[in-house]
Each structure stands twice: as structure tokens, then as C-alpha cells.
Amino acid sequence: MLGADVIVPIPLIPGVPVLAAMGALSTLLVNRNVSVFHDGLRPLMPSLRSGEMTRDQVAKISFSLALAFIWAFGLPYSVGFVIPLIYLVYIATDYIGVRLPATYDVRWWQSRTNLLGVIGSLVLGAAWGGGVAAFLHYLAVGMSNLPVPMAAGTALFTTPVAQAFFLFPVLTVVYHYGFRPALVAFVVSTLAWFSASQFGWALPSVWAFGAALLVMAVLLVREARRSGPAAAQVPPGWLIEDESAAPDWASADSDDEAEDQLFRDNVRRIKGNLPLITLLAGLGGAAYHWGLVAMDPFSSNLYAVGLALPAALVMLMWAFAFIPMKFTTAVVTGTMATGTFLEPVVALLMPNVWAAAIGVALLRVVEVFLLLAVVGWIERWPSIREVADVMRTAIFQIMEIGFLVGGALAAAAWAGTWGVGVVVAAWFVNIKAKSPVMPMSLGAIAALGVGLVVNVLALLGLNLTL
């Protein structure tokens, strides 16, 4: 059996202690400038380390990022009988970590400032992680006991996207290769779906996804063969471990050599903190396997209903879309990405929680040691980075549409056709107001608003579902 039997809402045990440990350790790693979750915050960490930016400046940016992601993305898809998103923990621990004091010219135990930052990180990070687990548990219980129960209906938010994930590679092909190749990908995936249904194969959507992904892979290989490696046909200098054996073309000017040395030093810095990075990865592997947290809303939907393989495939697409950016920023900044989206792929496919924890921990070790090689490979084949960038756009746009439909479904379950009207109206109002709410979160937030109104009216004896 792949994965685990997920319990929703997340149980207090092991939910509270595991998320508390993850919160404490992730905050500590941020405070020591070792690992950061948010991709927008990571590029600022070298400036914080060097003193070019103050902690107050970085903390203000982190707070704005955290606030936006928590209320507009993390929270709406984490309430009720669903697997909550890891954003609720790591986005906040990013802020706590940069907010607390730290210096980087001495070891953490060699100054009072660093000791205060480390102790504060462990205490406040644990309080946040454990508090999130307890809050979501009791919130779901409360939502299930409302006059119009809402907890079960929240799973509808992500159902449309969870069933249409085979469109990720199709839309990627549309954006990068054009309409005709995309039509081929769609037809092939549709035929795979119908064939799986006709012959009684399990999970037709997985077969459709695999077919579309195969078409995209063929197109990518053809493009790579036509264009070849990057113009210089030469790997970056910082991939050459033995500089004395480097050929003539590897001799760069002083600026390039300084940059190459900086990249090597940054990776060396990450390797020096590998034990703590690995420990956090192992905790994350256990949490993903148990279904205590998830990396995205629709893979969580799939995993919660026992579809571990489709959930892992969804996360594999996320990994392809984000790894080029995450690995590159790690090499450039000397601060590792807290997650690369590969962790759930491994964790969800393991037979038990110990295998998941060990497997993800080993994965993180491999990732760190392959940072330079992978980034160099990506630089040699720029089409990979281009397709990954397009895939992120495709995933987000499918999420926007699918989550709007999911919000309408949930609102209809709570308030009938009136609820659908409210969600649709909220979409247009949000556009008119220049999107103060993230489009991919609008459907869920509007539906939750509908649910609250319905429950208030229910207390007055009115029932909108009739």
C-alpha cells in the first residue's frame, strides 16, 4: 500500500508535536540564515547576512509576504476536513526567524544576541507550529457542528482541479509550443482517459496525465536537440572541481572567477548546515506521509481520499516547475530552499512513516550535493528553465479557474443557487477592484463567506438551500 490512511481533521497527536518540531527547527534555520521557505524572501538573505539590509527591513517584507499567503491562500484551503497546507507553518516561521536577533560573524553560542535568537526561534516556532495544528483541529470540529455544517464541504474547493490535473502538461504545451501541439496532447490524453475507462483500468485521470506528459516530454527533447546546449557550449566555471585540469575555455575574467568562487562558497555554507537541514526534511517527510500537511491544495485532496499515486504525480509537476528556480536561488544566495516539492513525492509513496522520514532526509542530502551540477545542467539546456517557467503559469491559471468552480460547488452545497451567484459575483467584483484577493483564493474565500451568512440566517430560522 502506498501512503497512509489520512485522518481529517488532523489529529492532535501526532499533529501538534510534529508541527511544533517543524516550526521550531524551520524558525531556527531562518534565523541562522540557513534555509528559507518563501522564494521571494530568499534573495534578500545575503543582504541581511552582509548587513546591507537591516532585520527590520527584511522583516517588513517577510511580514507582507506572510500575511498575503496565510489569509489569501494558506488558510482558506486548510480549514475543515482537509489536509492543511504547509504554508501556514513555514511562511510564518520565515517572519519569526528574520524578526528575531542574530549575527553571523560568530557561532550561535558565542554571543548573547545569537543565543537569544536561537532560543526565541525554538520557543516561538514551536508555539506557532503546534498552535496551528490545534487551531485547525478545533476549527474543523466547530465547523462540523454549525447549524449548516461546513467542514465536509470545504473538500469541494479543490475537487475540480484534483480531477483535472492532466491539463497541467496540456496547458504548458499551449503556452510554450502553440495550439496545434497542445491539441495533439489533449487528444492523446483524452484517448488515454477513454481507453482506461473502457478497459476498467484504475484512475483514468492518471493515464491521461501520463499521456499528456509524454507528449510534452517528446516536444521538450526535440526542442533541446534542435537548439543544443547554451550558446557557449561550455559548462559554468563553478562546475569544474579541479581548476588545474580545466581547459583553456574555462579561464574566465576576474569577475567571473569571483562569482564562481561565491557560488562554491555558498554551496559549502549550505553543506556545513546539512545535519539540521536533513532533520527538518525528515520531519517534513513524516508529516507529508501522515497527511498532517500538504504542499498544495489539490494533491492534498487526492491524498486525503487515498489516491497517493495521483497526488505524487501532481507534486512531481510542481517539482519540475519550481526546482530550477529553487536550486538556482540556493546557489546564488547560500540559503537553501526549505522545500523543493520533491519531498511529498517521496513521502506519499512510502509504505510507512519511518521510511518516509528517512527517504525524504536522504533526498535532501542528495539535493544539496547536486546543487551545482543541476544548476549547471539547467544553464546548459535553457529550454528546461523556459518550460518550467511556463508550467508555473499553467498550474496557477488552472488553479484559478478550478478553485472558482470548487468554491461555487461548496457554496451551492451550503446555500443552493444563491451561493453560486455570490461566488460568481465576487469574482467580478474582485476583478473590478483590481484583485485585492488572490484570484486562486477568491472562490474559497467567497464560499466561506457564503457559509457564514447561511449559518447566521439559519439561527434566524431561514434556510437558503430550499
UniProtKB/TrEMBL annotation:
Instruction: Name the coiled-coil region(s).
Output: none
The keyword Transmembrane helix is assigned to this record: yes
Q: Name one Pfam family in it.
A: YhfT
Key words of the record: Membrane, Transmembrane, Transmembrane helix
The UniProt entry, under InterPro entries, shows: Uncharacterised_YhfT
Keyword Transport applies = no
Q: Which residues cross the membrane?
A: 6-30, 114-138, 150-170, 177-195, 201-221, 272-290, 302-323, 330-350, 356-378, 401-428, 440-462
Q: Which domain of life is it from?
A: Bacteria
Please report the name of this protein according to its UniProt entry.
Answer: YhfT family protein
